[in-house]
Amino acid sequence: MDLFFWEIARASGLAAYAALCISVLSGLAPRTQALSFLANNRAVRALHDWTPWIVIPAALVHIVALLLDATARIGILDVFVPFLTSYGQLAIGLGTISVDLLIIVLVTTWLRRRFSNNAWQWWHRVSYLGFGTMFLHAMLSGTDLTSPVISVLSWASAIGIAYYALERLGKALNPSRVRA
Amino acid sequence: MKANSPTLPPIPVRTGPARASKRSGPVPAWGLKLGGLLTTFGVFLGSFGYANANLYVTNAPLQPATVAAVTTTDATAATSATTATAVSSTASTTTTTLTSAVRTTTQPAVTVTKKS
To answer: What is the pLDDT of residues B60-104, one digit of tens each?
Structure first.
């Protein structure tokens, strides 16, 4: 049974990564026109607002499968408190941090009306850090990242998101060039 | 009584080339959502198939400490026909007692052999 949970954990980990890529990219797209070839900004924004419905289940399945896999030896505390595991502290700890950051982003989004727009935006920018830690977690601990195909796809999506994030940052720092 | 409103000039007819506007793609929001769902589910199924076909990845970056312990105990069990005692390689001093009679394994049983 452990092997089944192990396979589920590996597959759901990659699915959670893909779902988070879609979420971050659709969040960047309205300002960077990254998905303008596909749809207008209203539709892309609707996709971004909907992505928790694919990110949360994939992440939950990944966590529950690892909790049930006795070989992985992941406890409930390891899910929320980083660097407590008996092996691979950094690799697994980064995954724990990304879960914590994901929770922060989701909770602050659901409580958005209680924040000022500026405060909420700063909380929402934590998602970039969450994506970064999840990517490092995948690279350092991902069993299937040794496959060239999976590795290339993972790196390509991360590089694409990094490119659009930098473009977005550039537009935020120099808004006069956007208007010109 | 007629309203005293000024007559507006006619709208000039645009004769030059139309301004090139950025057109966005035609996919509706539900199409994007469906695409996102199918992509995530497709990645899950594809990865599950890959993980099923490659259960033991020897060059995986992360190996639980139990793998090292099992390897050590396997080597010990192979050299000794009688009861062997192996000390786990982890920090905690766990002592495992093995017998040569029955050994549990996660490997599938060998049912077919090939003739040379």
So the answer is: 888 776 555 555 555 555 554 444 444 444 444 555 655 555 556
Q: Where along chain A do its domains lie?
A: 2-169
How many domains does chain B contain in total? 2
User: In this predicted model, what pLDDT tens digit does every residue of A110-148 receive, in sequence order?
Assistant: 999 999 999 999 999 999 999 999 999 999 998 999 899
Please tell me which of the candidates A12, A58, A140 has its beta carbon nearest to residue B61.
Answer: A140
Tokens of A103: 């929770």
Nearest CA in chain A to B108: A3
Contact A43 B60 (CB under 8 A): no
State the smallest CA–CA distance between residue B91 and chain A in angstroms: 9
Structural domain for B43, as ranges: 29-58
**A24, exposed or middle or buried, with CB in 10 Å at 0-12, 13-18, 19+?**
buried
CB within 8 Å: A18 and B31: no
Q: What is the value of pTM for the model shown?
A: 0.75
Strands (E) across chain A are located at: none
Interface pTM (ipTM) of the complex? 0.92
Is residue B79 in a domain? yes
- Could you tell me if B50 and B70 lie in one domain? no
Q: Does B17 touch chain A (CB under 8 A)?
A: no
Secondary structure (DSSP) of A53-64: HHHHHHHHHHHH
